[in-house]
Request: fold
Amino acid sequence: MSRSVDESAPRASRVRVVLTLLGTLTVIGVEFLLLFGVYVRSSPVADQREVVSRVAGELSMATPTDTAALSRSLQDAAAQLRDLGASPEQAASLTSAATSLALGVDSPVAARDAVAELSTELADRAAVLDVQAGLIYAGMLVVASVGWMAWFRRLVSRHRRLQAEVTEQQALAVSESRLASLVRRSSDVIVVLGTDARVTYASGSAVRLFDAEVESLVGSTVHGRVHPADVEPLVALLDARPEGDSDVGFRLQRPDGRVVHVEGVFSNLLDDPAVAGLVLTVRDVTTRVELETQLTHQALHDPLTGLSNRRLFGDRLEHALRRRGQQAAGLSLVFIDLDDFKDVNDRLGHDVGDQLLTEVGTRLRTVAREGDTVARLGGDEFALLLEGSDVEEARAVAARVHEWLSRPVLVEGHSLTVSASIGLAEVPAEGITGADLLRNADVAMYMAKDGGKHGTAVYEPSLHSAALDRLQLRADLERALEAGELVLHYQPTMDLHVPDHGRPTVHGFEALVRWQHPVRGLLAPYHFVPLAEESGLIVPLGTWVLQEACRAAVSLQQPGRPHVAMSVNVAVAQLTAPGFVDLVRAALAESGLSPRLLVLEITETAVLAGMDVVAPQLSRLRELGIRIAIDDFGTGYSSLSYLRDLPVDVLKVDKSFVDHVVSSEQGASLAEAIISMGRSLRLTTVAEGVEDEGQAAWLTSAGATFGQGYLWSRPVPLVQAAALLQSGAKVAVPSS
Ligand code: C2E
Ligand code: MG
Ligand code: MG
Reply:
């Protein structure tokens, strides 16, 4: 950043000054000479006039007798005039007057006239000389003042010019120093390169960015410090030297090993004489780039397993489909859903569940080949994108997934085994969207699940409608909950030992949920409860059932009659959900139902699946004063020892035992054993699914406390349940 200086300007100005001075001096000198000439000429005339006036004075005062003396005076005066340079005629006029006077030819009067005439002549001459001197003086004044004026004007304009130059230079200096200081202090790094890509200038901030001293930077090539992968485009840009500014971004490989991301502008200032170089103005954007990378990674990856998430998987799938458009290679999807993973979460808690999912992710990575995409689509759903593989290869991959997953996983002291249901889908010949392919694999996975889990199914178009129905149902159920399409029916439990006119009396009711589907009509729980359990919808669904059943129970109470109990089925996911005890307490408080009239039914299998978590939870519920029933007792487990450890009040003997009490001896003895075991544990027993009088009679004699079944009533809406109470359940009301 230098400034070009015109060296010849001051010299020319000096020459001009000297010439002006010389000119002025010459004019003044000439004027002086002329003035001097006038002076030289006028000075004797004055003396001459003095001589003449003295003689004239003498003549005026002289008497006529003094002629001799006057003649001498005139002679002297003539001599003096000659000495003073007067003209001979002038001197001669006095000499002649003196002679005439001396000779007495003329009188003093004549001499006086001659002197007067001479005096006049000299006065005229003096006047002429005065005029000349005045003119010369005036001329001198004019010349001098014009000269001085011109001189002064030039001085002023020169001064102004100089002043402007100085101001301009000062401004330039200020802006240059400001610029220099800005460059020095700027956090942006300015690097000027020559055409050979060597650094000719580097600003102070380059030290931190390059981790090198400015001295060592200057002279070195900048791409020697650039990350090898970014050298080529940078060199291409430096070679192309585009006009104006171009955006640049590259990575620096620093001596300390750090890779720094820089971004900025490349400017070709080769034509700017002040710079004459290729300028890189860059700044460190590593923090931003790293954050962006992190955010992008976060947006596209599952935080738990580090696998691709649904979004990235979808992108990769679309890309693969597009790439495949040009080739004939196969493309398959493997859709993996863990079997009963919910149980692990419910039983062992989410931490264990998370660790298990992480391990599944690791194993799937092991199974996948390089180039395959492994993703966690959400929850316990995983997927593999196999590029270049047909369905047979996908089948082999699925087999390896089953094999890897079957190996036990040790998590927090628990040895867990997981199995998965796997759906496979291949790109059909006519082409397909990514979303459809994924849905096909999902459909196939559902088929595998329905086929008994731990298996693999390949998508076939015929599968589609059945599986879609199921998916549709799941979506509908979510909506149904909000739309109030769920209803409760109530089935009475009969007290077998307090007969009313020889018939058992209603002890209480069990609330059983139904779905009033807008298209499919009233749906029984088996259509949707397993689906709700699978999707987690069972928690909000169960909450609604509990609250509704409590309210119904209160409405069924009649003054002067025995209290009516209400049984509510509770899924294990509800029981283990945080705040369940508070929820029950709130439902009781809200409805005003006495805790001792509420029975919560938990299936035997559910209890056994999560004993560690369930047992303490049951104790807390019991502390509220409510009773706990084991539902479907006898279907879940061979060992009955757990009953001793569980805080339980009621055993509901499964229908499968009741079914055979009359028809088979073995059936009868099994049911008898259960009932007597219940009695020995001081538990109330409820026989489920009592359909005929024979069963009822047998159960009563075997000591079962209560009975429940179509014999007395099917599950019915609340109004009918109330009517049943009135009539003493004499009529079995046909319902669902
Ligand atoms: P569960 O709790 O064992 O309920 C008894 C089931 O047996 C009811 O079926 C009832 O209608 C049926 N049943 C009663 N007596 C007889 C009979 O004499 N013969 C025959 N064949 N069946 C009889 P439902 O209402 O279809 O309920 C089925 C299951 O759905 C219930 O079995 C329960 O496990 C579940 N469920 C129902 N409502 C809910 C609920 O609100 N929450 C939860 N988590 N599960 C529910
Ligand atoms: Mg039940
Ligand atoms: Mg049952």
Notes: Confidence is low (pLDDT under 50) at residues 1-6, 729-736. The CA atoms of residues 421 and 454 lie 5 Å apart. Residues 301-459 form a domain with the Alpha-Beta Plaits fold (CATH 3.30.70.270). The pocket of C2E (ligand 1) is lined by residues 491, 512-513, 524-525, 529, 542, 545, 569, 571, 601, 631-632, 688-691, 708-710, 715 (CB under 6 Å).
